[in-house]
Structures are given as C-alpha cells and as structure tokens.
Amino acid sequence: MKDIVMEKEQKKLFEKFNDLSLGRRDITKHSSKDLPKYNYPVNNLVSAFHPSKMEVVVTKIVEENENTKSFWLKREDSEYLPPFKAGSYITLEVHTNGRIYKRPYTISSDTNSLKEYRITIQEEKNGIVSHYMCHECKENDKLTIYGPFGHFHYSLIRDSSDIICLAGGSGITGVRSMIVDLLRTKKVSSIELIYGTKTVNDILWKPEFDELAKKNKNFKVTYLLSEEKREDYPYGFINEDLLRNLNPEGKTFFVSGPVAMYQALNDVFVKMDIPNKFIRHEEFRESLETEDVETYELTIHQKGNVTVIPCKSNQTLVQSMEEGRFSAPVHCTVGICGYCRSKLISGTVKTDTSALRKKDVDLKYIHPCVTYPLSDIEIELP
Amino acid sequence: MEKFDCIVIGAGNGGLVAALTLQKKGKNVLILEKGLAPGGVATSFRRGRFEFDASLHELCGYGELGNKGEIDALFERLGIESKVEMMHAKEAFHVVDKLTKDEYSMPVGVDNFIEKMEEYVPGSRDSMTTFFGLCEDIQDALSYLHSEKGAIDEKDLYQKYPNFVQLAPYKVNAVLEKIKMPKKAIEILSTYWVYLGSPIDDLSFVHYASMVYSYVLYGPAIPTYTSHELSRVLENEFKNAGGTIYYLSEVEKIDVEDGEVTGVQTKDTSYATSHVIANLSPKVVYGKMISKENVPIENCQLENERILGARGVSIYLGLNASCEEIGFHHYTYFLSNNLNSKVEYKKMQEVFHGNVVGVVPNIVNKKASPEGTCILNLTSLIFGDAFDKLVNKENYFDVKEQLADFLIRSFEETTGISIREYIEEIEIATPLTFARYTGHPSGVIYGYMAKGYDNLLPRTFSEEEETRIKGLRFCGGFGARLSGFSSTYLNGEDVAMKTLGE
C-alpha cells in the first residue's frame, strides 16, 4: 500500500498535536473538579421499580372465607410500593419454626394503588407458609417481601383484544387484578371470566365481579362449581364444550389455577388446536408424589463456604435447604425466575430443565426449586 | 480477610477475559459480580419456548478455519476456541433507506464487497480498493500497538506504519472524502456507524476501518447458543483454571491508601488486593466507590468532560412461524431514516425516531429457536438523555409498550414484512432495564461517545498517564478500545497484560 500523502496543512495540524492523544489533556484542563455524576433519572427509577427487598407491615387482614385471608402490606421505608403489571407476584419471606421460608403470592390489588399491596392466601394442606399466614400472622406484624416479578401479563402488542380468563380456586387473585386493570384502562374489547371453585362459599369477591359485570357490558362472568350442585350455577370443571361455546378462535386465554386444571386444559387446548400464542398461563410445577422416602446428603458450595445438610427424595432441594436452615436464594419456586440456578457438581436428580438456557442445560445447571435428589448431591449456588 | 493478586469488579466481557488471562498466567484472581450470571449484557434469557440473546447482534473479527481473526486468535490463547460453536453470516449487512426505499445488500469478502459497491455506485471501485488497503495497514498497526506492553514510541510507530500515524487524527468522513469515495458509497459503507454509536464526522477513521474490515473479511459471527454461551464458557474456563467468582456480590468501595489500591469491600465482606480491574464506568468508580480525598482531580475533570454514549431499546420477539413463512431473507436489517449519519444522529436524540436494526438469528443459525418459529430482535439507539427525561413511575409501562408498537410498525412499514400476527412472545428492554442489570449511568450500553479526544487512539495513548491510582485499571465498554463485543474482549486481555506488567 502506498502512502497517503497528506496535504501540507493537515500535516501541520498533526505535528501541532505532537502526540496521538489529540489534545485530550488540554480539553479537560478547565472542566469541573467535582466528583463525576453517575446517577441519572433512569438509575433512580431502577430503585423505584426493582428494590432488592422491602420491609413491610401488615396493616389489615380480611377473612375472605373460612380458609382464605387477604393481607394488606404497606412499605416501611417508603410511601410507595413499586409499580407492577397486573398478574405479577411478590415473594413473601416468613420466619417460623426457627426457619426461613419464601413463597410467591400474586398481588390481588389494583395496579393504580401503590400505597399498599394486597395478597390473598388460601390455606393449603401441609402448607407451612399458608398455615402460618392464616393462623399466626397478625395485623402490625412485619414481613419481608421481594419483587414484584413475573410474566403473566396482558400485552397490547401480543394478545388479542378479546380475552378469556380461566381461573380456578385461589388462581383468581392475579386474574382479579388483571380484569380490574383492563376494564379501567379500556385496553381490551371484551373479557369473559370463567371462575371455577368447589362451592359457592369459595368464590372470592363475587359482589365485586357481579358489580363489574353490571357496569361493563364487555365483561361477563360465569361461576362454575365442582363440589356443590346449585340451581343457578353450572356444575363441573372447565371442559371442551364449555370452551367451544366461548367462540375461542383468535381470543387469548389467561389461565390461572391449580395444577390439575392446567393439565386438563392443556389436553383440551391441544385437541382444539389452539396455538401457543393464544394461551398465557401462570407458572406452575407439579409436586412429586412418592411413597418411598430416601434421605441423602446435600453438599452446598457458596462463596467459598461448604455446607452439608440432609435432603429427602420427596422434597425439592430448596425445601431441604429450608428444613436444613440454609438460607436458600429463591423467588418463584417453580423453576422459572433463575434466582436459585446452580451448577450440579455431582449426583443424579429428577428435575425440569425447560426454563433453563440451552448452554446451561449442557453444562449441568439446575433450578434447585424444581429438583428432587436421587442420590447424594453436590451443588454450587450463585 | 481473603487476599487475591487481582480483583475484577464485574463479570462482563472485559472482566471475564481479564480475569481468565491473569488466572492462566498463574495469578490468583477473584471476580465480584453483582448479578446472577456471567457476561453483563452478553447474556440471554428465556420466555416460553424461546431463548433470546440480550445484546449480541454479530461478533466481528471471528475468523474461520485457515483465516484467523483477532477474536478466534484471542479465544485460542484463552483455551476456549474449541469449546464454543460459532456460525458465520454470508451477508455483511442489508440496508434500507426509508426515504428513497432503496435497498443495498452487502456481501462478505473484500472483493465481493468492492464489486457489489461498484454495481450500486459505478465509479466507486478505486476508492473502495484504497479503503480496504488502508484497512489492512491499520489492522497491522493496531495489532502492533496493542501487543506493546509499555509506553509506545511514536517515532518507531511512524517508521513502521506511516499510513496509520498520518490517518490517526482524522475522522471517517474526512478520510473517505480524501480518497475521493463517491457520496453514495460513503453512505452505504458507513452503515455500521450505529454499532459504534457516533456519526462518522466524530468517529475515528482508524477505529471504524478496523471494525468494517473485520466484518467484511470474516463475516459477522454468532454463537449457536447466544452470547450466554460465550460468557458461560469463559466463566467455566476461569473456574477450571482455579479462579474464584462470587455472584450477588456488589462492590461498594475500593480501598485506596497513599495512592495505591489496598482492597475492595462488598456490603458484608472485605477483600485484600493491590490490583483492581474495574469492568464498569469510571464515572461510577470515581463518583462513589473511592473516598473523595483519594480521587485524583484530573480523573474527575476527564470524567466530567466525557459524554455518555448510546442508550438502547431492544424488542425481543418470538414468532410462531418460520423465516420463509414470514418472509425474512436477511440476517441484519439496517433501517435508516437518512443514510447521512450526521442527519440521522441528530434525529436519534429523540426517543421515537424509527432508526432500527433488525436481526433474525435463524437466517444464520437454524438452532436459534424451535422448528417452525423464528426470532426477530429490533434495536433502536438513543443518544443523550431523552429517555431519562421522558419516563417516570406513572408512564413507564405505557412508554415501553408504545415504543415496541412504534418500532414494530417502523419495521413492518419499511420492509413490507408483517410480523404482528406471529408474535408469541415479546419482551422489551429499555435503558432502565440495562441500568438495572449493569448499573451504568443512564443505562448507557455503548460506554462513552467516541468524540475527537475520546476516540480509540487518544484513549489508548493516554491510558498510562490517566492511571493515577496505582493498581486501578478499567476494562470493558468504557475502556480504551471502546464498546462492542470484540473491543471489550480484546481490551480485557490488554488490561490484564498491563496489570501483569506491574
């Protein structure tokens, strides 16, 4: 390559610089000597939307029915809780039995009232946290929460403007928040809610839904009972006939409820040839039913420390950590959020890798919150 | 207190390469990362049945067998070349001028590129040939420059690489005009300017030429399993070499005594070290991580002068039909309102401007998403603090959705390809999202603007002089080689070698 001959003037200019730092020193000579600014409005918004954790106080407890209570939570260190999209959940941290437990609960309150969040908890059989909340937790108690998190939301761009919500039992909580939000903001043309419970007494917020249906011509609610026959209520579970009657083509389903409901509906959706795009559902995982319970050793490496605790074949590794008084990093508990993602160093497990990144599956990463041990296990936590 | 030879703050591209380089040289290195995964923005995330790359469009400088590029050569030195699976695009880029609706598809390979340009712009051949000749000279000079460990002898450099030294002070447009490149050819050739985040009258010719050359010579490359694959492999190699990495460990303070680094502190732990490599913005480091009395005034002055680079909005779309069904034919679509970078840059100071880069990984990588689906990533850069001024707690979710809607519409209108009906998954990242995961001021993703005094060469030549706290160096997108995947990987190694030299 032959030289590019520069014009005399340009050459002079270069010689004047005399160094290749192009006058960098001169340019900064007169600038401010203050410490540099690093926090911009966007950085401040990060703290408003995503605080690492929040201390809250229970301001009010409402008994919704005999086994369900709502809890109103107010932030202690700030007037407002983070804005959230309807359908989001928080992770609630509870200290009981000398142990620490974390569980996700969907926010059931309105997106436009951020002084308090409401979570609604149904007592579950053998549920440690739901039992604690429904029986031990009192007004003015202090709790820690994380979030809000989740992807079970309505999207104007992705979803149809006609939506069908299928809610079962306490799965109504996030759906309630979503319906109120969508009716208020007028983002959709129509909402059809099918809300299944065991009995009439299990229906949450019936007066509110009835009132909303009365005020909004584009909102319709049907209550479906599975364990009580009543003249004015349809009986049974959500099935193919019922869905076909809703003219589902081109409408988006929002599904939230117990595991059995997802499984049954999944088969129906496949049979009806409804594309994935039109089915949004709350995340869930089946729990493992097993007769024989084996106990193994779980070795945990974290930041240079090694902890060994027992783990049981019928419990997830996160549950074993809770039992073993090891503070587990966990938010969603259903293998989605990635917060507990760990490297499996040794041992065999039964796990679900469907939400892991492909390279992480190759390199034997797991989500301990959905992993059951089949031998002694050694993992490295983040 | 745990003691390390070197502590790297942040497991971004630069941090990972710096840490791995030092660890392989027998040093005992600790990486402290505030997040949960390696790579910084070089990561991926899952939504439904899709895995989206958070940031990588294409890697430049990654050669193929028998044609070694700078990045695969680096990966070979690091021992990870055989552990990553890379794929190459056959087309360098496809640009659509929104104004005239003209489209230009530029191929990979220097000769092909020159021929194609001659087709689009008759009479451009000579200047294009000169351009690529200069590129070669520059590439050689840069390799020499970065392999020198100590201060650089400018006379020696001038002797060896006269073209390089003569061109060093000039901007892209000045040189291209000088070699009499036709205006249209300049516009097409400068398409990549958005990847460097400065218009061509601000951008150093040397830097731009070296990047374009890498793309055209080797073709843009992507990893099979997203940039997370690269980050995970780097992290794994570092751990296998005996390195230590702690996640969820945000460094709050760098201890400095008598002008020398003595350690770092997280919220609950102190570590001793005499060397820190910071893979983050010097604005943050000098602004809050070092006690005021230990911050050199000259560094404050420099930081107060430097201008933050581009912020970005990225829309990740999982589509439930194949490329053929939808009608995607190109890997990278550059959609410009105006091919003149100066005019376009001005417009991009607004949030809603419609300059979009669309990437369809499935065109290059069949494994990018499940069969019968594909991914489209739309990215739009914002210069300045318009996004900071626009958003608040009340409107943020709505602004996000409006932006996604606007960018999808821009893409559809410009390319004539309709995508909306296929959207199965959508995620939207804004400067707020990037600020959340990186901690960068204003959520900037392109480091600092490559303004005259803050281009590649001034940064490189001033690095030693500006290292005023002994043992504290910077790597990554705010570092000497500027931002971008290839730059930050290479810069990580440079900084490690300089640290080793101490």
- Low-pLDDT residue spans of chain A: none
Supply the number of structural domains of chain A.
3
CATH architecture type of the largest domain in chain B: 3-Layer(bba) Sandwich
Q: Tell me the number of strands of chain A.
A: 18
The CATH homologous superfamily of the largest domain in chain A: Nucleotide-binding domain of ferredoxin-NADP reductase (FNR) module
As a percent range, the share of helical residues of chain A equals 10-25%
- What is the radius of gyration of chain B? 22 Å
Quickly give the structural class of chain B.
Answer: alpha/beta
| CATH-defined fold name of the largest domain in chain A | Rossmann fold
Element-level helix/strand string of chain A: HHHEEEEEHEEHEHEHEHEEEHEEHEEE
In the CATH hierarchy, the architecture of the largest domain in chain A is: 3-Layer(aba) Sandwich
CATH class of the largest domain in chain A: Alpha Beta
Query: How many beta-strand runs of chain B?
Result: 20
Report on the architecture of this protein.
The complex is a heterodimer of chains A (382) and B (502). With 382 residues, chain A is an alpha/beta fold. Chain A has 3 domains: 50-149, Translation factors (Elongation Factor Tu (Ef-tu), domain 3, Beta Barrel), CATH 2.40.30.10; 162-281, Nucleotide-binding domain of ferredoxin-NADP reductase (FNR) module (Rossmann fold, 3-Layer(aba) Sandwich), CATH 3.40.50; 295-380, Beta-grasp domain (Ubiquitin-like (UB roll)). Chain A has 10 helices and 18 strands. In chain A, the strands form 4 sheets. Chain A has a 6-stranded antiparallel sheet with strand order 4-3-6-1-2-5, covered by helices on one side. Chain A has a 5-stranded parallel sheet with strand order 9-8-7-10-11, covered by helices on one side. In chain A, strands 13-12-18-14-16 form a 5-stranded mixed sheet. In chain A, a hairpin with a 2-residue loop joins strand 1 (54-65) and strand 2. Chain B has 502 residues and is an alpha/beta fold. Chain B folds into 3 domains: 2-83 and 224-306 and 450-501, FAD/NAD(P)-binding domain (3-Layer(bba) Sandwich), CATH 3.50.50.60; 111-219, Guanine Nucleotide Dissociation Inhibitor, domain 1 (Orthogonal Bundle); 310-438, no CATH class. In chain B, 41% of the residues lie in helices and 19% in strands. Chain B contains 20 helices and 20 strands. Chain B has a 7-stranded mixed sheet with strand order 8-7-16-17-18-15-19. In chain B, strand 7 and strand 8 form a beta hairpin. In chain B, helix 1 packs parallel to helix 11 (226-240), helix 3 (110-120) runs antiparallel to helix 4 and helix 4 packs across helix 10 (205-218). Chain B is globular. The two termini of chain B are 23 Å apart. Chains A and B meet through helix 1, helix 2, helix 3 and helix 10 of A and strand 4, helix 4, helix 6, helix 11 and helix 12 of B.
